[in-house]
Prior knowledge:
five-stranded mixed beta sheet, 14 strands, binds manganese (II) ion, 312 residues, Purple Acid Phosphatase, chain A, domain 2, 38% helix, 11 helices, alpha/beta, six-stranded mixed beta sheet, globular
Amino acid sequence: MDLSRYIDRAIDVISTPQSLKSRLEYYGEVLLDSNRKYGGVVVLGEEVRYVFIGDIHGNLEDLRLILSRYSDEQLKSGNLKLVFLGDYIDRGDNQLEVITSLLELKSEHPNSVFLLKGNHEGVDLIEPSPHDFPDELIHRYLIGDGLKIYEMFVENVFKRLHLAVYLKNYFLALHGGLPTVTYREGKAQSVREYIQGSPQTLVPDVVVEVLWNDPIESNDEAHESPRGVGALFGRPVTEWVTKTFDVKIVVRGHEPCVRGYKFNHGARVITIFSRTGPPYYNSTAAILEVDTSSREWYRSIRELQAIKLIKH
Ligand SMILES: [Mn+2]
């Protein structure tokens, strides 16, 4: 069976506030376990097929097309891993269905599915705009249950999502971009320390940059961001990160792109945006499929075979 069946499961779960609340307790445990095992930055070692999925923002039909490409058997075999780059909620019509489907999928395949935190799931740091997820929950479940469920999402889910996934020699994946604060400090001894700001705990200023930064084609290290939060990171940051932590590419979402993908910094930074529709009206959504067991993996990205367009 293909993975779109998790959408049906989610629709069942969200049918009553009681069933959603009890399931949120369970998701909280699954994500806590994942955090204890992998930490804020997931360091993997398997040279298998990785699929990166960018922003979904509540578009259930695009998510359905993406999930229907893969099966439970592939995830169980360990030869396929899915990395979701964050921003599951806000803006779209089916944000609750989208995030619940992904939590069901993660619960079933905790070591093959990784859910990264997007700036829309980072409300404890800076509230994004629009943030219509709480309104959606209140609309659906009325104010008492709606607010309680929102609080459970923040505490049990958002706060426990991973910040990045790293595979040495290949990639570093995160939602927004490379942090410039820890780049300037220049003392990070590991990729974990660079992304979290410290080896053990999360430093908020650094995490905000991971969630909010965008690349800029500049030889300066950093520019002020038009978003009013985070920064634009230039080529020197990408060069330093790829060299210091031995990765070829940085994969991220966060920015809508006309075709669903774009390249920056000489195809070292790859943006993936995996939903269509308002308010961006990009013509296609895309995902990135990278088979790290193949010698040709990087060429397949440059020559666009690794970019899969999501078509209705
Ligand atoms: Mn974003």
